[in-house]
Specification:
There is one protein chain. This protein is an alpha/beta fold. Helix content is 38%, strand content 21%. The chain has 16 helices and 23 strands. It has a seven-stranded mixed sheet, sandwiched between helices. A six-stranded mixed sheet has the order 10-9-8-11-12-22, sandwiched between helices. Helix 5 links the parallel strand 8 and strand 9. It is globular. The chain starts with a strand and ends in a 10-residue tail after the last strand. The structure holds NADP nicotinamide-adenine-dinucleotide phosphate and magnesium ion (MG). The site of NADP nicotinamide-adenine-dinucleotide phosphate has 27 residues, from helix 8, helix 9 and helix 12.
C-alpha cells in the first residue's frame, strides 16, 4: 500500500483538498494505493507549470538531440525495470502478466521510437512566385492536456507523452483514476532522465473534476484523449470554448471477418485473440465475428471448444489467460450486456461469472469468456461497445454481404479480414471504412504505424510519424529577398 502524490513542476504534491482516491487490485479488491483526488485548483497549478516550462526556461532552448536522448533514457529505464512495471500493471489493471510484459516492451519502444524521430522533424521550402523564399516550419503546439483510460495504462501514457516530448511540447497528463500507478512510478525517473521541471506533470483524479478542468483551462493548447465516445463528445464540446486542438481515440465495434477460404486453425485463434485479449477491454476488440455461411457451424464449434479452455484467474498466476475486468463499474456494465445478449441472440459459451475461482480471487471482477451466435447486426450486442470478453458471431453470404455488415456501424476504428485470396483481401481493405485494417491477423499495433479511427471512433492519429504531427503546428514564413520598397503607395 503506497500513497502517491501529484507530480507538478518537478515536485510531489498533495491535492489542495487533501482528499484521496483508493486504487484497487481488481482480482482481489484489495486497496493497493491511494492517489490525490485533484480538482481545478491542482489542475491550474499543473497547467501554469507546463505553460512556464513551455514559454521560458531551459525547455524551449533544448535541441532535438537532447530531447531525443531524454526519451532514450526513459526507454532504457523502462527496459531495466520491465519486470517490476509489468507486475504493477497486472496488479492494478488485472491483465495476465504475459500481456503486461508485452505492454512494457511496447511502452519502452515507444519512447525509443519518438526519441529517434525527434531529430527527424523537418519543414518545407515552397516554390512561391517572386524573389521570395517561402518556408513552412514545424513548431510544438504548446501545452498538451492528455487524458487516458485504464486498459493499457503505461502504453497509453507512453504514446501521449513520447511524441509530446519529441516535439518540444509540455504536458499535463491525467491517468484513469483506476490505474494511475505505473505512470506515477515512471514520473520518479523524469528528473534523472533530464526532463526539466514542468515539462511533464501528472495530475490524478476523476474525469468529471480533474479531467474536465484540463479540458476547459484557457492555457492548454491541445487535448489528446483516449476513452469512450460519450466522454469524447463532451471533450470536443467543452474544448470548443477555447478552440483547442483536439485528437480523439474512441471506441469501436470492430468486425473480424472470416471467409470460407481462411486458414482454419489460424481463424480459430484469430477469432479468440481478437476479442478475448486484455479481457476484451480493447478499443479495437474484434467483438463482431463475421463468418461465411459455408464454414459457420464448423468454425463456431471450433472457436467455442477452444474458448472453453481459456483459463480465467488472477493475472499473476502463470496459467491465467484472462484476468478480471478493471472495476465494479465495468463489471456491472458487462454483466448487464450479458443479460441483453441472452434476449437478443443464442448464448453458446459463458454468460456470467466463472464458477471456480481461487480463494483469494473470489471477490474479483471476473467474467467468463462469452460467445453469442446467430446475432443480428441490429442487436444491441452488435452495435454498442461492451468493452469486455463478449463475442457476437454473425453469419454472412458473400463478400458484398460481409463488407455491408462490417460497415453498418457508427464506429470505424478497426477491421480484420481472413482469407487466402489476396485479391479478395485487398478488395475488402479498400471497402472497409476503418482507420486500421488487418489481413490474416488482428490486434497488433506496431509503434511505427499510425493508429486511429474513422467515423465516430474519433479523429487524429497516434503512433508512427503521424502521431508526432499531432503535436506540431505549421508556421508559414514569407521572406522577401528584395531590399527595396514594395512600390504600392507611390
Ligand atoms: P471514460 O469515461 O471515457 O474515461 C477515459 C478517461 O477520461 C479517464 O481518464 C476519465 O477519468 C476521463 N474522463 C471521464 N469523464 C471526463 C470528462 N467529463 N472530462 C474529461 N475527462 C473525463 O472511460 P471509462 O470510464 O474508463 O470507461 C467507460 C467506457 O469507455 C468503457 O466501457 C469503454 O466502452 C470505453 N473505453 C474505451 C477506451 C478506448 O480505448 N477506446 C478505453 C477505455 C474505455 P476517470 O475515469 O478517471 O474518471
Ligand atoms: Mg470513468
Amino acid at each position: 500500500m503506497q500513497t502517491y502524490r501529484n507530480f507538478i513542476d518537478g515536485a510531489w504534491t498533495d491535492a489542495a483538498s487533501g482528499r484521496t482516491l483508493d486504487v484497487l487490485n481488481p482480482a482481489t479488491l484489495e486497496v493497493i494505493a491511494r492517489v490525490p483526488d485533484s480538482g481545478p485548483e491542482d489542475v491550474d497549478r499543473a497547467v501554469r507549470a507546463a505553460r512556464r516550462a513551455f514559454d521560458a526556461g531551459d525547455w524551449p532552448q533544448t535541441s532535438a538531440r537532447e530531447r531525443g536522448r531524454i526519451l532514450f533514457r526513459l526507454s532504457e529505464y523502462l527496459g531495466k525495470n520491465a519486470a517490476r512495471f509489468a507486475e504493477i500493471e497486472t496488479l492494478n489493471n488485472g491483465k495476465p502478466l504475459a500481456e503486461a510484459r508485452e505492454d512494457l516492451s511496447d511502452a519502452a519502444f515507444c519512447f525509443e521510437y519518438y526519441g529517434g524521430l525527434a531529430t527527424k522533424v523537418r519543414g518545407d521550402v515552397l516554390p512561391v512566385p517572386g524573389n521570395v523564399m517561402s518556408l513552412a516550419l514545424r513548431e510544438p503546439v504548446g501545452v498538451a492536456g492528455q487524458i487516458i483510460p485504464w486498459n493499457y495504462p503505461l502504453m497509453m501514457a507512453a504514446q501521449k507523452l513520447a511524441p509530446a516530448i519529441a516535439a518540444g511540447c509540455t504536458s499535463v497528463l491525467k491517468p484513469a483514476e483506476q490505474t494511475p500507478i505505473s505512470v506515477l512510478e515512471l514520473a520518479g525517473a523524469f528528473e534523472e532522465a533530464g526532463l526539466p521541471p514542468g515539462v511533464v506533470n501528472i495530475v490524478n483524479g476523476a474525469g468529471e473534476t480533474a479531467g474536465a478542468a484540463i479540458v476547459v483551462h484557457p492555457e492548454v493548447d491541445k487535448i489528446a484523449f483516449t476513452g469512450s465516445c460519450e466522454v469524447g463528445k463532451i471533450i470536443m464540446r467543452e474544448a470548443s470554448a477555447t478552440l483547442k486542438r483536439v485528437s480523439l481515440e474512441l471506441g469501436g465495434k470492430s468486425p473480424n471477418i472470416f471467409f470460407a477460404d481462411a486458414e482454419f486453425e489460424a481463424a480459430i485463434e484469430g477469432a479468440l485473440f481478437g476479442v478475448f485479449l486484455n479481457q476484451g477491454e480493447i478499443c479495437s476488440a474484434g467483438s463482431r465475428v463475421l463468418v461465411q455461411r459455408s464454414i459457420y457451424s464448423r468454425l463456431l464449434d471450433a472457436v467455442v471448444e477452444k474458448a472453453k479452455k481459456i483459463k480465467v484467474g488472477p493475472g499473476l498466476s502463470p496459467e491465467t489467460k484472462m484476468g478480471p475486468l478493471v472495476s465494479q463499474e465495468q463489471y456491472d456494465k458487462v454483466l448487464s450486456y450479458l443479460e441483453v445478449g441472452k434476449k437478443e441472440a443464442r448464448l453458446v459459451l459463458g454468460g456470467g461469472r466463472p464458477k471456480h475461482l481461487p480463494k483469494e480471487a473470489e471477490k474479483g471482477f471476473f467474467v467468463e469468456p462469452t460467445i453469442f451466435c446467430d446475432v443480428d447486426n441490429s442487436a444491441r450486442i452488435a452495435r454498442e461497445e461492451i468493452f469486455g470478453p463478449v463475442m457476437a458471431v454473425i453469419p454472412f453470404d458473400d463478400e458484398e454481404d460481409a463488407c455491408r455488415i462490417a460497415n453498418d456501424t457508427p464506429f470505424g476504428l478497426a477491421a480484420a479480414v481472413w482469407t487466402r485470396d489476396i485479391f479478395k483481401a485487398l478488395r475488402a481493405v479498400k471497402r472497409l471504412r476503418a482507420g486500421v485494417v488487418w489481413v490474416n491477423h488482428m490486434q497488433p499495433a506496431p509503434v511505427e504505424a499510425p493508429w486511429g479511427g474513422y467515423k465516430q471512433s474519433g479523429f487524429g492519429r497516434e503512433l508512427g510519424p503521424h502521431g508526432l504531427d499531432e503535436y506540431l503546428e505549421v508556421k508559414q514564413v514569407y521572406i522577401n529577398l528584395n531590399d527595396r520598397p514594395i512600390g504600392w503607395y507611390r
